[in-house]
Design a protein that fits this description.
Distance between the termini: 22 Å
Structural class: mainly alpha
Radius of gyration: 22 Å
Amino acid sequence: MSSHAAMPPHPAEAQPPPGDGRAGRRLALVGGSLGNLVEWYDWFVYASFAVYFAESFFPGGNPTTRLMNTAGIFAVGFLMRPVGGWVLGRAADRHGRKSALTLTVAMMSVAALLIAVAPSHARAGWLGALVLLVARLLQGLSIGGEYAASATYLTEASARDRRGLGSSFQYVSMTGGQLLGLAVLIALQHLLTERQLTDWGWRVPFVLGAVLAVVVLWIRRSLEETEAFAEEAAEPAAARGSLALLWQYRRQALLVMALTLGGTVAYYTYTTYLTKYLIGSAGMAKTTATLVSFTALAVFALLQPLAGALSDRVGRRPLLITFAVGCSVCTYPVMTALGSVTTYWPALGLSLIALTVVTGYTSINAAVKAELFPTRVRALGVALPYALANALFGGTAEYVALWFKDAGHESAFFWYVSGCALVSLVVYVLMPDTRAVALSRAEARDDGVRAEPDTTAEASSERTGRQ
């Protein structure tokens, strides 16, 4: 362990890492965020347009059944996220954050193009649904690695006293991707008829996503590695990013899963499922429901940096605890009220209440998870347990909601969301605050101490494991 700390800097450190200077940090945040935006645009646009293309791949049956079929494929994409988290998280720890970020966006471009050209059931039977499934599996691989690579990159590239602010741009860009998808949906709703959208218009956003991903691929190739990774790059690649190494931090991995549980269920409830809920349960017009979601998400994106900056002052735990308490208490009344509104302003107000509460989790979860692990296993440590939690809970949230609705017990889903938040609340109360941990030897030297493992994120990880 001590020999690891004493290793000389890697030659890559001769180039200024993105953490050196404000201009470099801004460039890193912009580069990482733009790619993340396009990745999540491609991911979320599936959910946004599902009400239009469900009939193309799953004809017959009632609308809820068709949506359950498309939601099932949406959830299957989440099942591949742990695989993507393992493969690409390992790549990010062994070969660098930049290489993983470049690979993820390339995979997403291919997946978006596959969906755009998938044949309908009328033309090729169930082949179209199979192509849709393959594309979602590829998207799952991509997004499974994207979350960890971008979370790690944005956190490591930020100044130590602004990591909450810097990492908050992950959800700014994630939400920006969803907003872009909704903007395309709103534009197409005004330019095309309902029939045109159902027949072919839904393919347009996937073509756009494939093109944007190619542009971002070029941008990401110009990014530089973070200082934290450059310090570790002198070690043999085999010493980084392995499952055996992650096993040494299994308690931290379980902690990531537990603190993700409530946040991911709440996030997908109030983002991807909200529009369908307003349309299918409240009886709101599709265009009005889409506009509600768009406006609420725009405000939500603006809240992320504010909350992230607040966490740099007061710590991570107060925000996480506020989220969990608010979600546990407010979900049932807010969702019940949303189920009876049919106009824009009441729906927007209720949605903003819910998303403001969720901000306590989304704004800082990337930083919290990255701060739990040492550099040599940080990307994998964030990726795999987070992806597992999303596969089990986030990706299935919409399907569970529709299942309860189809069974005639829709309100039971509200209690399900509250229960998941309550489980995470226990974790937030018991876990240590990670704000002050050093992520690199350079940060540890700034504290005036030797950069041994017990002065960096590794020490924090070990202390967390003992609690």
